[in-house]
């Protein structure tokens, strides 16, 4: 194997490892918030990372932890819920990345479960201190409005 070919393989492997790390980070969100692990969920964000979900703006890791600890969120957990984020499309540009996925919030109600919300999720991430962290997450309801569709289109194209 030539040095050049080895270098190409190393770059390809590094790209796959970055994509996988980001996919794992995003997939961790649901289980962490559904078991109430506020600090672990907040660690997915950069210290000053933001989360804008349908008019509710969190502007820091501390705000994300506070959301998970809130009475409203703890009530969801106590009644039974599932924050499910589907597979992510990830585009990496060096130490910056964009990812997009769809999500659903499933709530336990009576004898069964209902889908309470379906959303489009657009993430901007950076490699900070050697690990990927969310610097901005925007979530919009998939309710027919163009904003959610625009988030999906931007993410799939790596913007």
UniProtKB/TrEMBL annotation:
SUPFAM superfamilies xrefs: NTF2-like
InterPro entries, A to Z: NTF2-like_dom_sf, SnoaL-like
SnoaL-like domain mapped to chain residues: 15-138
This protein's name: SnoaL-like domain-containing protein
């Amino acid at each position: 194997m030539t040095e050049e070919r080895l270098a190409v393989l190393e770059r390809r492997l590094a790209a796959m490892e970055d994509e996988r790390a980001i996919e794992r980070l995003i997939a961790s969100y649901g289980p962490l918030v559904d078991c109430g692990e506020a600090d672990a969920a907040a660690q997915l964000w950069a210290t000053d990372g933001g989360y804008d979900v349908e008019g509710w703006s969190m502007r820091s890791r501390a705000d994300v932890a506070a959301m998970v600890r809130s009475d409203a969120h703890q009530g969801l957990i106590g009644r039974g819920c599932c924050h499910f984020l589907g597979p992510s499309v990830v585009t990496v540009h060096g130490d910056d990345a964009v990812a997009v996925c769809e999500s659903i919030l499933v709530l336990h109600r009576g004898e069964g479960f209902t889908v309470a919300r379906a959303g489009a999720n657009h993430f901007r991430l950076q490699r900070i201190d050697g690990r990927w962290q969310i610097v901005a997450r925007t979530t919009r309801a998939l309710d027919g409005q163009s904003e959610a569709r625009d988030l999906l289109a931007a993410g799939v194209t790596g913007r």
